[in-house]
C-alpha cells in the first residue's frame, strides 16, 4: 500500500491516511477484498502511533470503505463510487462550513448556486 504521511502538514496524520486510502480505493489500486496491513504494521511502516492508524481505520470502516473481520484483519469493501464520492464531498463541505461558521441556510444556498451553473 503506497501511502506517505507529511509530518509537517497542517492536516492530521490520521486524516492524511484516511484520504489516501480512499483515493487508492477509488482509483482501483486497492480493490474489493484486498487485505490491508495490520494497524501495528502500518503504524510501524509510517512511523505513526498505533492509535493514529486505528482511528483512520475506524473512520474508514464507519464510512463503508473497509471492514474488519476480527483476527482475520481489515479488508477493502466493494464500493458504489458515485454515491459514496458524493457523500464524502458533502461531509468535507459540511465540516469546512462548520469551521467557517457559515449558517446552514447560506451553505445550502452556495451549493444550489453552484449546481445551477
From TrEMBL:
Family annotation (Pfam families): GntR
Domain HTH gntR-type: 11-79
Organism of provenance: Glaciibacter psychrotolerans
InterPro entries found in the cross-reference section: Tscrpt_reg_HTH_GntR, WH-like_DNA-bd_sf, WH_DNA-bd_sf
Protein name, UniProt field: DNA-binding transcriptional regulator YhcF (GntR family)
Keywords, ordered alphabetically: DNA-binding, Transcription, Transcription regulation
GO MF annotations in UniProt: DNA binding; DNA-binding transcription factor activity
Amino acid at each position: 500500500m503506497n501511502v506517505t504521511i507529511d509530518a509537517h502538514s497542517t492536516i492530521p496524520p490520521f486524516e492524511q491516511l484516511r484520504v489516501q486510502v480512499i483515493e487508492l480505493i477509488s482509483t482501483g489500486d486497492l480493490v474489493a477484498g484486498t487485505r490491508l496491513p495490520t494497524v501495528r504494521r502500518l503504524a510501524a511502516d509510517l512511523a505513526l502511533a498505533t492509535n493514529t492508524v486505528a482511528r483512520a481505520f475506524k473512520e474508514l470502516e464507519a464510512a463503508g470503505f473497509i471492514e474488519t473481520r476480527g483476527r482475520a484483519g481489515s479488508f477493502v469493501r466493494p464500493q458504489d463510487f458515485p454515491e459514496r464520492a458524493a457523500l464524502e464531498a458533502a461531509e468535507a463541505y459540511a465540516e469546512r462550513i462548520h469551521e467557517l461558521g457559515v449558517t446552514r441556510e447560506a451553505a445550502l444556498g452556495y451549493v444550489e448556486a453552484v449546481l445551477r451553473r
